[in-house]
Every structure is written in structure tokens, then in C-alpha cells.
Write a structure and sequence with these properties.
This protein has 513 residues and is of the alpha+beta class. It has a domain of 157 residues: Outer membrane efflux proteins (OEP) (Up-down Bundle), CATH 1.20.1600. Helices cover 62% and strands 8% of the residues. The chain has a 4-stranded antiparallel β-sheet. Helix 2 packs across helix 7, helix 4 packs across helix 7 and helix 7 runs antiparallel to helix 8. The protein is elongated and about 130 Å long. Keywords: Signal. This is RND transporter. It comes from Paraburkholderia phenoliruptrix.
Length: 513
């Protein structure tokens, strides 16, 4: 009867062990579906974790399709999500974290000990089957902790994907702007060269002073140096884009458009950005999960501070003169010298560290939103001012100078000198447009990868005094990750410049001079 009951117990333990072990299995997607869904929702792009040859072939086909036409900003982001090897390496963190989760859900392996002894008139055989009881008891808590860490890893991986997408946008904007600046520098150099050659011929004919000739030659020399520097900057910016999108070989011969996209027609404004960022940023969500995981680990450390080892085993011994001997043994660690205080103190310190890091992450997020939003509005105003005021005025002056030249009222060198004055205006607009798109990328990243939906936008004609300032401070609450008491205002941002009146048929398009 006793043997029958023992067999029943062993059978029950084995079935329970198989059941618990069966619950700890790997998922089909390895957690990547969460990352790809975030990419589709916020970036409207496809994220692919390349594991098989079929995945590589699909990525290659998609890459070739994107490179068949001049590369757009969204195309650059998609290429980075498909080909950036650093991002693919970050995806491997999902596999490692899931492996830790599965491992935490597995029962500890039992131990088996065998011994054989003998003496003068007999021998003995000892057999012990043991298992860590403490490991079985703490299995649910350990699984919950690793589950939170797995979710945290998903958020961190998605956040790394957003960082790569933002880097791709920045690299694209810098590359297109650098090539546009280099193209304009080549035009300036050609103009300077024509002026220098004309000055040389007039100097040889004795119709040009030495000082004026030197001025034309100096301007030509400076234009040639600026062109060389602009071409080098364009090459460096292009290579940065190439590295970010992960291209190599013949794929590096991709085409870029001649200029950056135009400014939006209306001055963009948004409301509730800090609250949106706190709810939307994945690094804050990951920090919250990390704090919860650390809190659970602290509770487990406190529960096991006195007893770290608790093993139970089944004995089946045999001695030649006594026969079989069956029973059980329990092995427990005696907290005689180490009462677990140091372990608990360390866990408490880690918890306090995690809480403070979460609060700092939220504080940094609020500050980054205010800073990037102010830069976003200012860069739009500056670029619009160049587009609608500075460049059209420079072109109007140039058109008037051309009319005077056709009427023989000014010389060709005065006409060339006026073209030099346009250099600063055009280069200023190129830089201002580049700054706007970079500022928009920074704002999107500070908000968690996307701008707020249109429902949160303010009308473009709302007076600045009626909105809230982007640079104003908010009251600090006990929890920085909670929504702010009041939102940033826009009153500190200058209003958009008024629409100019163009003379002599001047165009508002800066590319039309």
C-alpha cells in the first residue's frame, strides 16, 4: 500500500512537471510582431527581421524597387528598416529575452546521486533522487519577472527602431541639402570664372584697374575653394546616408532629388504635446516596466532572504545484510552567518535607482518636447521668411540690375557683383529648409516616433497670444511621468512674416532665379 501511494505521488509530480514545462515554449514570432505593428502604426513602414534566405530575397527585391527612382525621405526610412544591420542586431535582443523567459518557466532539473560501499562481509548501494523545492515554489514569480523584462525588451527594440528611422531622415535631409548646396556652389564658381576671365582680358587691354582685377580673381579663387568644400561635404553626407540605410556595392549608386521638399503651406501648431509624449514614448513605457520588474525582484529577494537552498529527495538504499531501505531527505541552508540583509539592501538600492531613472526619463522627455517644439516653430518661421522675403527681394534686385544692364546703365561687373550678393540669400534658404526638416525629425522622435493626430492640432490662424508658450515651464508634480498641469505655450515664438509685395515680376520660388 505504501509503495502504491509512493508511485501515485511520483506520477503526479511527473505529470505536473511535464505540464509546467510545456507551458514554457517559444512563440512563433519571437515577440517581433509587436515591433512590426508599431512600425506600421507610427511610421507606416514595414519592419522585417531577416532570419531566412526567403527573408533576404524579399528584402533585396523591395530594396531594388525603392532604388529604381530618386530616393524620397520615406523611402530612406524604409530602406533603413530593411537593411540596417545594427537594427537587425537589436532585433536579436528579442530572441535572447524570450529565451530567458522560457528558461525561467522551466522546472529545475532533478539531481541523482549513486553510491556503492562495501565492508568485510557485505556491501551497500545508495540512490537519491532530489529536486530544488525552492526553485519550484519561486517558479511563478520568476516567470512573471522575466515576462515583464520580455515586454520591456519589445519596447526598447521598437524604440531603437525609431532611433534608426530618425537617423535615416536626418541623414537624408543632410545629404539632399548638401548636394543642393554643392550644385549651387558650382554655378557660383562658373559665374566667378567668367568674371575673372573677362577681367583678365580687360586688364590686358588696359581698361581695368589692378585693384578691380585682383578683386575678381580673389572672388574666383574663393568660389573654387567653396565648391571643393561643398562637394566634400556632399560626399560625406551621402556616405552617412548610405551607412544608415545599410547599402553597399552597386546599390550605393542611388539617385537623390535635386532639392528638399517644400515647407507646409500652413504654420504647424499642436496642443498637449507633453501629455502626448508621456503616453506615447516607448522609453518611458520601458522604464515603467523595468521599475515594476525590479519591484517584483525586490519582493522575491525579501521572501528568500533567510532560505536560499531547499532541496527534497527520495532515497532508495540497499544493504546486503539489511535489505532495502526507502525514505526521503530534506536539505536546507541554515542562515547562521548570512541572514540575507546584504542581498535585500542591494535589491532595495536597485529599486530606488530604477524609480529615479524613470523620473529622470520623464523629466528629460518633457524638456526635449519643449525644446524641439520651439525649434520646430522657429525653423519654420525662418525658412518661410527666407522663402517669402529674403530670396524674392534678392531676385527682385537682380532683375532690376539686369534691366539696368540691358539699358547700359550698369557694367557687367556690377551685374556680377550683384549675383554675389544672392549667394548668402540662397545658401541661407537651403540651410533654413534643412533646419526645418531636421527640427521636425527631432520633434517626432521626442514625441515617440510620430506627430500628434490632426485632432490635436491647432488652427494655423490662432493668435499667438491665445495659445500656450512652447518654452514656458510646467509645475513639477510628484510623478514626472504624469500629464502636466498646464501645457506649453507659443507666445514666445515669433509670428510668421507678412506676405511681401514682389516687384518686377519677382517669383516667390527660390529656385527660379
Amino acid at each position: 500500500m505504501t509503495r502504491y501511494l509512493m508511485y501515485q505521488r511520483l506520477t503526479g509530480i511527473a505529470i505536473a512537471a511535464l505540464f509546467l514545462t510545456g507551458c514554457s515554449t517559444f512563440s512563433k514570432d519571437g515577440g517581433f510582431d509587436s515591433v512590426s505593428s508599431v512600425a506600421a502604426e507610427r511610421l507606416h513602414k514595414d519592419a522585417v527581421y531577416v532570419k531566412t534566405d526567403e527573408d533576404r530575397d524579399a528584402v533585396l527585391r523591395r530594396t531594388q524597387e525603392l532604388l529604381a527612382a530618386p530616393l524620397g525621405m520615406d523611402d530612406a526610412v524604409q530602406l533603413a528598416l530593411l537593411n540596417n544591420r545594427g537594427l537587425q542586431a537589436a532585433y536579436a535582443e528579442l530572441d535572447m529575452s524570450e529565451a530567458d523567459l522560457v528558461q525561467a518557466g522551466r522546472l529545475p532539473n532533478p539531481g541523482f546521486a549513486f553510491s556503492r560501499t562495501h565492508w568485510s562481509d557485505g556491501f551497500g548501494i545508495g540512490r537519491t533522487l532530489s529536486m530544488s523545492v525552492l526553485g519550484v515554489l519561486t517558479l511563478p514569480a520568476a516567470t512573471r519577472i522575466e515576462s515583464r523584462r520580455f515586454e520591456e525588451t519589445k519596447l526598447e527594440t521598437a524604440n531603437a527602431m525609431f532611433a534608426v528611422a530618425a537617423d535615416a531622415r536626418r541623414a537624408y535631409v543632410n545629404a539632399v541639402a548638401a548636394e543642393q548646396a554643392a550644385h549651387y556652389a558650382a554655378q557660383v564658381k562658373d559665374t566667378a570664372q567668367a568674371g575673372a576671365e573677362l577681367a583678365l582680358r580687360m586688364r590686358q587691354a588696359g581698361n581695368f584697374s589692378k585693384l578691380d582685377y585682383a578683386r575678381e580673381q580673389a572672388f574666383y579663387a574663393e568660389a573654387a575653394a567653396r565648391l571643393a568644400k561643398a562637394r566634400q561635404q556632399a560626399l560625406a553626407a551621402r556616405e552617412k546616408l548610405t551607412r544608415t540605410v545599410g547599402l553597399w556595392g552597386s546599390a550605393t549608386q542611388y539617385m537623390l532629388p535635386e532639392r528638399l521638399p517644400d515647407l507646409p503651406k500652413a504654420r504647424p501648431r499642436f496642443a498637449g504635446l507633453e501629455s502626448f509624449a508621456i503616453r506615447n514614448r516607448l522609453d518611458i513605457q520601458a522604464a515603467q516596466l523595468r521599475t515594476q520588474s525590479v519591484a517584483a525582484s525586490l519582493g522575491l529577494s525579501r521572501a528568500t532572504r533567510f532560505v536560499n537552498v531547499l532541496d527534497a529527495g527520495y532515497l532508495n538504499n540497499f544493504e546486503s545484510d539489511k535489505g532495502h531501505e526507502r525514505g526521503y531527505e530534506i536539505s536546507v541552508e541554515i542562515p547562521l552567518f548570512d541572514w540575507g540583509g546584504a542581498k535585500v539592501a542591494r535589491a532595495e538600492a536597485i529599486y530606488r535607482q530604477s524609480v529615479n531613472r524613470l523620473a529622470q526619463t520623464a523629466i528629460d522627455a518633457r524638456s526635449e518636447v519643449r525644446e524641439s517644439y520651439a525649434a520646430y516653430l522657429t525653423s519654420y518661421d525662418v525658412a518661410k521668411h527666407y522663402r517669402d522675403e529674403v530670396v524674392p527681394l534678392a531676385k527682385s534686385i537682380s532683375d532690376d540690375m539686369l534691366l539696368r544692364y540691358n539699358g547700359m546703365l550698369v557694367s557687367v561687373f556690377e551685374l556680377l557683383a550683384d549675383s554675389r550678393d544672392q549667394i548668402a540669400a540662397v545658401n541661407g534658404y537651403i540651410d533654413a529648409l534643412k533646419d526645418y526638416w531636421l527640427a521636425q525629425t527631432d520633434l517626432e522622435q521626442s514625441l515617440g516616433g510620430r506627430l500628434p493626430p490632426l485632432a490635436m492640432s491647432l488652427p494655423a490662424d490662432v493668435p499667438a497670444s491665445s495659445t500656450k508658450s512652447a518654452t514656458s515651464t510646467t509645475s513639477l508634480s510628484a510623478d514626472p511621468a504624469s500629464p502636466p498641469a498646464r501645457e506649453p505655450q507659443d507666445s514666445a515664438v515669433p509670428a510668421p512674416p507678412s506676405q511681401p509685395t514682389h516687384a518686377h515680376g519677382a517669383s516667390s520660388n527660390p529656385e527660379g532665379e
